[in-house]
Design goal:
three-stranded parallel sheet, alpha/beta, 11% strand, globular
Length: 95
Amino acid sequence: MIGDGQERVYIEEMVKKLPFCNKVLFLGEIDDIQSILAAADLFLLTSEVESFGLACLEAMACGVPVVATQVGGLPEVIENGKSGFLVKVGDIELS
């Protein structure tokens, strides 16, 4: 996981309880984001509030598929089903 914020400690504690915890890295803030994104298989942006979605644009520019919540300016950045996928906040059901 890349980035930092008020939820990081909570998320780290939650991940420690999962069977795949040794496969999750918490990298914090990264200056050279392109090198990390270029190695990614998927970019998830699960914000409840998002003004524009610059992080999604950066991932898309690196050729990484994007799944994001349908909030703020994200529907302007992501064309659902074409340039990425949009989901409703809280929609965590697997289909």
